[in-house]
Structures are given as structure tokens and as C-alpha cells.
Amino acid sequence: MSVTVRSRFVNPRLGTFFGIFASLFAAIFLMVLISAELGANEAWLRIVALIGPLALYSAFALASFTTEPFEFFAAGRRVPAVYNGVIVAFAASGGTAFICLTGALFLNGYDAWCIVMGITSGFVFMAMLVAPYLRKFGAYTVPTFLARRLESRFVRVLAAAFFAVPMLLILIAELRLGVWVAQQLTGAHQELLFAIIVGSAGLAVVAGGMRASTWSGTAQAIAALIGVVLLSGIVGVMMTNLPVPQLSSGPLLRGIGRLESDLGVPTPQTSLFAFEFAANELASVTGRIAEPFASVGLAGFLLTVLTLALGVAGAPWLVVRCTTTPGVYEARKTLGWAVFFFGLLVVSASSVAVFLRHVFMNDLVGRSREGLPAWFNDLQGIGLANVTGSVPNLPVNAFQIHRDAVAFVLPQAVGMTEVLSFLILAGALGAILVAVSTTAQALGAIVAEDVIGGLRWSPPPKVVRLWTGRIAVAGVLLLAALAAGLFNGDPLALTLAALSISAATAFPALVMAIWWRKCTSLGVVAALTSGFVLSVLAILAMPAGWGPVANPLATLMAVVISALAGLIVSTWTPLPSRVAVERLRDMRIPGGETIYDREMRLLRLRQRETTQPAGS
Amino acid sequence: MIDRRERKPYWMHTKWQMFVSLVPYLLLVIVIPIYTDVLNSNKFLGYPLGFFMAGHGVIIIALFTVAGFVNRQDAVDRWHGASEDS
After folding, report:
1. I need a labelling partner for A491 at 20 to 30 A (CA). Which of A90, A170, A268, A436 fits?
2. Selection from A64, A423, A426, A483 nearest residue A231 by Cα
3. Where is average pLDDT lowest: A93-97, A103-107, A330-334, A584-588?
4. Interface predicted TM-score of the whole assembly (ipTM), two decimals
5. Across the interface, do A590 and B83 touch by the CB < 8 Å criterion?
6. CA angle at residue A54 from A48 to A55, to 5 degrees?
7. Residue A562 to residues A430, A555, A601: CA-CA distances in angstroms?
8. Which pLDDT tens digit goes with each residue over A370-411?
9. Residue A337 contacts B where some CB pair is shorter than 8 Å
10. How many whole angstroms from its chain centre is CA A592?
11. B68, B70, B39, B64: which is closest to A113 by C-alpha?
């Protein structure tokens, strides 16, 4: 078999390792299930469901320990597309698409698809506009790419400062959601759970950087997929007789529609630019599940799709993952796999929402307060549901369910064992850890490479570079944990705000630097600054709560103004140097050596020549 | 390795490939929500068609768009001698 650029260095035993992991993960939950049936203490079983998978992720992280900067910052550029794709998918979705989106699909129905369409379109944009070129360039961070492409250290530091904001927002959102999910699983103290989650993510990224976050992240993503696909599959067999709920929940959905029609569920039409999703609190169903634009207007829907697509396509914590593949072809394929895994996650999550809505319409709506099922009363007891009014036939809007509880109450609602809830909560925690470790690694690398070492082109010695990276990643995680403890925001709103800033700040600058030969460093400074300032102003100017997504038009205007500022300033400033243009031309050709690796190799050769004079 | 004279035709071909892959996808993503009400009067696999297209449909379309783009762009790379394996 010939060894090409595409297949070199890839570990042939990866499938075996992750097969063993999947078996161990399943074994933990089978053991918990058997112990629960034998009457074991439930509190201990909940702790096992939390700590067991975390121990497995930590084993992957420790086994990926590295002392090489090339491994620490780029995972040795040998991550196959399928593994990279699953991490990109779960780093983009995180716990918000897993937990919050399931709730939004249940409460807001069709309108929640705008988030799915936005993130999916972001992968398509990234595959065509950004990823292959960033992979050929090979820089460890996006600010390093911009700086070397435009030959400007100022761009490097400025981009690092601006990109840090959305990444911190993502970290805060995911950590808050992670602690909430872990509290639902174990009921332990918030501080302890913060320490466990930050410690688990920190172990991976501090020990092995991008390498460890890749392999422990793959394990976490597999756990998340097992959680949601298995739960929806089991309930799917119960309710539709088919184990593919992703495609078989349709007749149930139409049944819900008929019931909604019989019960007179309203079909409100909101204003064109409205965006009123359920927040992370008790909320009522807004309208019929398959009817569009009850809470998000048509223009708001389309603008949100575009904003999220541009935000994901330019997200500095996601695109940098594409530099870890063996080649440009694999970087393009990564995004195809990302669409597949993200699609599998959200379509399974949508079937969970449809199943719960079916139970909700059949077992709750139209009943009296006294006739409500035990599972709903249990949910009321822990504050995750509520019912108002005391009429004999309770209408749809008399019921309130916590948005983020929808994903894990389905097993109890259909009369199954609570252990399946542990499984989906552990899966959600896996998805959250992928997002935390990927974002912390990317932000730590930016702090180490572009802030601490941002004013010099040549990197520091190997040991210094590696330890700067480790300390920066640990510092970033601790800062994010501190901010998450102090900040009280909705994780979904924070994630959407982060993607809005990314859309206005990173996307125009990246696309101009790749696709426009005459793009100059001052043009990129103008694009970065105007995009960042306008998108942050859009967030701050909006009423508290839903931030920029209350008016996605403002964010999209920020994207357009950022691009225009970059175009106008680049046109008025001197053309880039011949070396910069030659580097750009090289970046556009997939073949040949990775540009950043070549520059580092030549730098090492020059350093060796200066320390060892000729003839010695 | 790509011939120097091939660089410009290669980049033109790459830009065209990106354009013809992205524009139809973008049009579909915009058109599907606009016609949801009309599509919802039909059904597919039991789902109201508008609901199906906004969720499952967009994901399937995106998957085929990226797969088609990767395949065609690889052919463009090979045609101009710009592929990693050449």
C-alpha cells in the first residue's frame, strides 16, 4: 500500500482504542442499571455516572501527554478527518445544542431550526472559504495566521484581544451549563462541580494541549452520541416500533398537529424581526410544533441563520482545529464529517423533543390538576416544571417546563428507568467538555503565542514555548471558571452572542486575508476593529436578556460594515509586499510543505548556523 | 508540484468551484423557510414537508454540498497538478 501525504502518520489503532472506550462507557451504564435494579443506593449510582466517564476521558488525556510544541499546538498534524469532524461538530454544538436546543425545539417548535440551519451552514462556509487555506498555512492560531499573512505584529495582538472575548463567552456558557447538568446528575455543591469539570478539562489541555484535547474530546463526543442516539432509539422503539427515531418520528409529529388542532392550540404569528426564544427558566409552549414563526419572525429567522453561519465559519476556536489534519484534502473532509455528526446529534435531539411533546399533549393537556402523572409532579417538586390554573381541563399554556430539563425528563415521562436520564446527562457533560477543552486550548494557544510572544516573529525555545502554553491554558480555564461563577447568564444566549461577535470580527478579516490579494494589514485592522466594536455595541444596546439575537439585523449590519471598512482601507493603503503576495499564492495551492512548518524549519536552520559557525 | 503558469487558471477554477457549490446551497437555505407554510401542506416520511426540510433536509443538502465540493475540488487540484499527492 502506498503511503501518501493524506495517510501518513495516522495511528492505525485509533478505531480499536475508541471501540474499547465505547464498550467501557456502555459497561459503566449497564453496571449502574443492574445495580439500580438490585436496589443499590441511588446517590452512589449518580456519582458513578458522573465520575466513571470522567475517569475514562482523563485516561485518554494522560495517555496523550506530550513534550513537543508541534504536538501540543497542532496534535502533530495527524488527526484523521472523521475524528476531527466529530470534535468540530461537538465543539460547535457543545452542551447548548445538546441541552438547550432540545428544549427550544420542544417549546418553540419549528423556530428553533434556525440555530441548526445556522450552525450547519457555518460548516459549509468554513469548508469552502476558510479551512483548506488555514490548513495549508498551518499557523497554530488564527491571529498568528493573520499576522504572518499580512506581516504585522499589531494585527496579531489586536486580533488576539478581540478573539478572546467570544471565546471567553463560550467558556462561561459551557461551564455554567456543565455545572447545571452535573447538579441535575448528582445534586452536589456548585463549587465542587466547578472544580471537577474545570479539573477534568484542564487535565486534558494542560497535559497534552491540542493532542490530548483531540483524543479525550473524541471520547467525550462518542459518549455524547451514545447518550442521545441510544435514548432516542430506545424510546423510538417503544413509540414507533422502529429504532431510527431520526426518521420515524414523523407520524407522531403529525399526530401532535392533529391534537393541537383539536385542542385549539393557538398559531400566533410574530413580527417580521422578532426573536423570542425560551430562556433557561420555566416556559410555556408558544404555538404548534410544526408551524413556523410563532416566536421568531421570518426575517429574524433568516438573519439568525446567516449570522450563525458566518460566526461558525470564522470562529477562531473551530477553524484552528482544521490545522491538525494530515493535509488540505482531509481539512475539507473534516467539515463534511462535522455536518454528519452535528446532523445526527440535532436530528436525534429533535426526536427527543417530539417524543416528549407527544407525551405532553396526550398525558398532560386536558387533564385536571389532580390527574397529572407522577413524573410531572416529581418535576414540579424539584422546580423544573409548574402548572397554573385549576380548571378541570388544563390548556396547553397552563403548563411550564424548564427549557434545559426537556432533554433528560423523557425516560421518566415514558415510564422508563431513571438510569437512562443519567446516560443522557453524562452524554451532555461529554459534549460540554469537548467545547470547554477545545475553546480553552485555542484561547490558551492565542495567549501564549500571540499575546505573550506576540511581538517577536521567532518562537521562544521549545521548553519555554511548551510551558508558556501549559500555563496560559490553565490560566484561561481558571479565569473562565471565575467569570462563570460570577456571571449569571443564559448559556444559549451567551453562545449566540459569542457567534455574533465572531461573525462580525473574525469572518470578514479571515475571508479578505485569504481571498483578496490586495488586502492590507491596515484594512484588516479596520475590519477587526469596526466589526468588534459594532457587534459588542449591538449586544450592549439591546435590552438585557437575549442580547444581539433580539435583533440579528444589527449583527449582520456589523458584518457588512466590517467588510466594507476592510475593503475601503485596503484600497487606500499601499499594496502588500511581494513576499506577502507570494506567501498568499503558496497558501492557495494544496500541494507542497505547510507554510508555517517550513518557516519554522528554516528559522531553526538559521539559528543553528548562527550558534555553530561554518567550519566548526 | 504545480507549474507556475498553472497557478492563475487553477485559482480561477477554484473560485468558480467555490461559487457554484455555495450559491445553490445558500439559495436553498433562504428559500426553504420562506415556503415553509406551502411545503407543510405536503408530507414526507410522515413529517410536514416544511418542518422536515428545515431540519433534516438542510442537513442532508449540506452533506451532499460539502461531499460534492470536496470531490470536485480534489478533481480541480489534480487537473492542474496542485494536489498534495502530485
Report:
1. A268
2. A423
3. A93-97
4. 0.97
5. yes
6. 85
7. 36, 10, 36
8. 888 999 999 999 999 999 877 788 888 889 999 999 999 999
9. no
10. 32
11. B39
